[in-house]
Amino acid sequence: MASYLTNEESSYLLIPRKYFSRYVLAYEVILSSLCAKVNQKTLLNFSDGQAVVESGLMSDGYILLELSCKEDKNAYSITNLLKVWFPDNELRQAFLDSSYDNFDVGSLDCGVVTSASDYTNTHLVDITLPEPISKRDFVNMMMLEDGIMALVYARLSTSCKNNDLKTLVNSELTKEQLVRALVYSAGNDEIDMIVLERFIDLCLDNGIDAGWNPNQILCQLSTLLPSTITEQQKYEQWHALAKAFVNSENVPDKLFTDTEDGSIVLRAIILVLLNPELSYLNAMKEQKTFEIGVQVYDVAKYLTLLRSGFSILSSDERAYISEDREWIQNLNAGLHNNELQINNSLKEYSKELTLSGANQSSMPVHDSVKESSPIKYNLKMDNEYLTESLEDLEGFQVFDIRGLIPNSGFKLSLLMDNFSSQFSLWLVDLKSTAGEKKYKGKFALELVNLQASLEKGVRFEVDDWGVYLRFPEEVVDSSELENLLKSKLRKISVLKIINTRKTTFI
């Protein structure tokens, strides 16, 4: 049964039906470039939407998308889609009866719209149609964002509570930096990282529909690299191995193992040269012709997923991350809007990092404190290395550490939670201008890299107030705490947080 537009708070987009079915459903994002302009506007208000319905334009192959947002953007999240309006029931039913591998259209609210009986059209409707775009051009345009989505999906489907992933995405990395960190964040070897960056470029330039010639890709890789890399012995030896493998010549049996004296990244790239799709990679792994290490396989898998993207996933595969589906849809729109810090839903995921390992709560530190919180014990104020700070932070006791001098922009105060008595080292004050400048993409990436080397129970955490290094719950006395502090400060000294010239504590 047909109805008319009634929600004056909604916004609307006029989009060709074929673009909605072909692109929006597959990529799970609504690009404004796919939509028509009405009176020079893409995002329409209620009156504009009514005028479009009255004009009869929708019968020319268009549908009207009703959205909950009011701000013009390059891209809109599927989570903002309230309703899909069709001009007649036949088209609506044909859409619902169609089989779309990528998206469950039954999850959409689809209706038939008609003119309001008392509506008088006073709008002159000037339509500017969207620029035509071929599927090939659209796929190429979407490769970077679609590849990131595939990597994020792969991480979430492995561990849907991957807080490190969500913190990384919520940092200030560029999209290119984010891709590298998602593929492999544990290395810092110059050759490895530069080769990886150029190989990522090649994966994005040669998507799954573009074909893949291993020898040609290897040749292009060498061309893209500076001579300062290609002339080094390490690269020359690796290139010879890669060429031998591609040409089915003899290579070492342990070429793809996770050995300490070899490069995980370079081994994974060789593997992908002959196995550029995940199905090929998995088939080789099952054949067991070569032993493939877990880390090498993971990096190779992520590189193949860059080529295939998120858009090829089936609706069942997408449903697998049900509890994170809205988050990843918001991320998708944020990538296209160049807004990695998307909205409150992303911020909440970032907040979940704080005290996520504590039994009492997974809420942010500053929200988990109760007025009647018990203090299990107090540190002695007469010890040699701690003094009570003049700074006040709700829910915590704050201590300065004698002889520990931070570099400009950093904190290095010790916090004790009044409720759990758990200790954290306050590294960055995000409420200060200097601290906010410090928490940029490179520093956030360094935290993720370093996290892998920290033992269980010690982890970096982020909330609205700052960046912290949280210690295990089982610290029992001042002496143990002092030893723990010195040990961890030596560990994080690579972050350039500590003024080593003036510091005497460690």
Write the layout of secondary structure elements.
Elements: E1 11-16, H1 17-27, E2 29-31, E3 37-38, H2 46-55, E4 62-67, E5 75-77, E6 81-86, H3 89-97, E7 110-112, E8 127-128, H4 135-158, H5 163-169, H6 175-183, H7 190-205, H8 214-224, H9 227-230, H10 233-246, H11 264-274, H12 278-287, H13 294-308, H14 315-319, H15 325-336, H16 344-351, E9 386-388, E10 396-401, E11 413-417, E12 423-429, H17 433-438, H18 441-451, E13 459-462, E14 466-470, H19 478-491
Parallel strand pairs: 6-7
Antiparallel strand pairs: 1-4, 2-5, 3-8, 4-6, 9-10, 10-11, 11-12, 12-14, 13-14
| Termini Cα gap | 75 Å
Uncertain segments of ≥5 residues (pLDDT<50)? 342-378
Number of helices: 19
How many beta-strand runs?
A: 14
What is the helix fraction of residues, given as a range? 40-55%
Largest sheet: 6 strands, antiparallel
Instruction: Tell me the overall shape.
Output: globular
User: What topology, given as strand order, has the largest sheet?
Assistant: 9-10-11-12-14-13
Mean pLDDT: 83
- What amount of the residues lies in strands? 5-15%
Structural class: alpha+beta
Radius of gyration: 27 Å
Question: Could you please describe the fold and organization of this structure?
Answer:
Strands 9-10-11-12-14-13 form a 6-stranded antiparallel sheet. Strands 1-4-6-7 form a 4-stranded mixed sheet. A two-stranded antiparallel ribbon has the order 2-5. It is α+β, with helices and mostly antiparallel strands. Helices cover 41% and strands 12% of the residues. The longest helix has 24 residues. About 7% of the residues have low confidence. It is built from 19 helices and 14 strands. Helix 7 crosses helix 8 and helix 10 runs parallel beside helix 11. It is globular.
